[in-house]
Automatic annotation (TrEMBL):
Key words of the record: 2Fe-2S, FAD, Flavoprotein, Iron, Iron-sulfur, Metal-binding, Oxidoreductase
UniProt GO molecular function: 2 iron, 2 sulfur cluster binding; flavin adenine dinucleotide binding; metal ion binding; oxidoreductase activity
Occurrences of domain 2Fe-2S ferredoxin-type (ranges): 263-350
InterPro entries: 2Fe-2S_ferredoxin-like_sf (IPR036010), 2Fe-2S_ferredoxin-type (IPR001041), 2Fe2S_fd_BS (IPR006058), Beta-grasp_dom_sf (IPR012675), Cbr1-like_FAD-bd_dom (IPR008333), FAD-bd_FR_type (IPR017927), Flavoprot_Pyr_Nucl_cyt_Rdtase (IPR001709), FNR_nucleotide-bd (IPR039261)
Cofactor entry: FAD
Name of the protein: 3-ketosteroid-9-alpha-hydroxylase
Residue ranges constituting the FAD-binding FR-type domain according to the UniProt record: 10-116
Pfam families xref list: FAD_binding_6, Fer2, NAD_binding_1
Length: 350
């Protein structure tokens, strides 16, 4: 591959591939060594993802998001895991062309699919490569938490199971806390909502984290509704392909003035509270950047979920929010890169 030496903008970082792990015939993990001077920016939460810049002969490059399968508590270096997808340019390129010592441009960790409390008893659901962020949460909970963990992991067949050996070792080491249930389509067919409900019923009081193909996640949502689990205790991660270029060289930040109609917003970010004037024509990300705040974002097109936050008080409008489920929106989740104020005053929490 062509070695990248200089990042295209100030937010991105060029990392070195420290190791390549062939997980299955269709999946591999890339372990990254981050430059020492940028490591603070790569402190990540279990379940977050990295955005990678991948060379392309047609467009120069494409951006793809891959979940971190490593845990910030048990792994020295961040690791993403990539599974080949049908007609997936990015996944095929990373599986075919990347070797140890190569350098790849990435954006810092982002994403809101993170555990609420590592001490809680949790129910984890994954299918195929959806195991990647779930594995990060699982390892973190076992390392730092005290609760019990049940993992339901669906795959096409036994050869498709990513992290099979690691899961066996973890189940043996934590036999008093971890239960792993494998579901193989080659043996049992595709799981139905009623089958999943029967498996989940005795754990219905736990918080659930779900990642996998949309039909699988739809069946999980239906199953958990059948057993009476509140929707606000179900957290889902959706994989998307970005159409924009978050690695584009930055242009001079356009000042966001207070001229014209404005709202006021109280933003809670990293434990601090900021009171801002919010022009109605500007997005929340634009406003926060104009004030020098380190707002989390990647694509700025409503496609990745990096800037997801919660409206505690007030109302916003959004240009695009397809990545959010209707239930998420009903529970107050918004995308800061798409949000513009409707109310006079708002309170928002990241």
């Amino acid at each position: 591959m062509t070695t990248v030496t200089t990042p295209r903008n100030s937010r991105s970082v060029v990392v070195t591939v420290a190791a390549v792990v062939e997980e299955t015939s269709e999946a591999r993990s890339l372990v990254f060594d981050v430059p020492p001077e940028r490591r603070d920016e790569f402190a990540y939460k279990p379940g977050q993802f990295l955005t990678l810049r991948i060379p392309s002969d047609r467009s120069g490059s494409v951006a793809r998001c891959y979940s971190l399968a490593s845990s910030p508590f048990t792994d020295d270096l961040p690791k993403v895991t990539i599974k080949r997808t049908a007609d997936g340019y990015g996944s095929h390129w990373l599986c075919d062309h990347v070797d140890v010592g190569d350098r790849i441009e990435v954006l810092p960790p982002a994403g809101a699919f993170t555990p609420v409390d590592l001490d809680e008893d949790v129910l984890l659901f994954a299918a195929g490569s959806g195991i990647t962020p779930v594995m990060s949460i699982l390892k973190s909970a076992l390392s730092q938490g005290s609760g019990k963990v049940m993992l339901f992991y669906a795959n096409r067949d036994e050869r498709s199971i990513i992290f099979a050996a690691e899961l066996r070792e973890l189940a043996s080491r934590h036999d008093d806390r971890l239960t792993v249930v494998h579901w193989l389509e080659s043996v049992q067919g595709l799981p139905t909502a009623r089958q999943l409900a029967s498996l989940s019923d005795r754990w219905h009081d736990r918080r659930a984290y779900v990642c996998g193909p949309r039909p699988f996640m739809g069946a999980i949502h239906e199953a958990l509704a059948l057993v009476g689990m509140p929707r606000n205790k179900v957290h889902a991660e959706v994989f998307t392909s970005l159409s924009g270029d978050p690695f584009a060289p930055e242009v001079e930040q356009i000042p966001v003035g207070d001229e014209g109609s404005t709202a006021t917003v109280e933003v809670q970010l990293d434990g601090d509270t900021h009171n801002l004037s919010w022009p109605r024509a500007a997005t929340l990300v634009d406003v926060m950047l104009s004030k020098g705040l380190e707002v989390p974002y990647s694509c700025r097109e409503g496609e990745c979920g990096s800037c997801a936050c919660t409206v505690i008080e007030g109302e916003v409008s959004m240009d695009s929010a397809a990545i959010l489920d209707p239930e998420d929106i009903a529970n107050g989740y918004i995308l800061a890169c798409q949000a513009r104020p409707v109310s006079e005053h708002l309170r928002i929490e990241f």
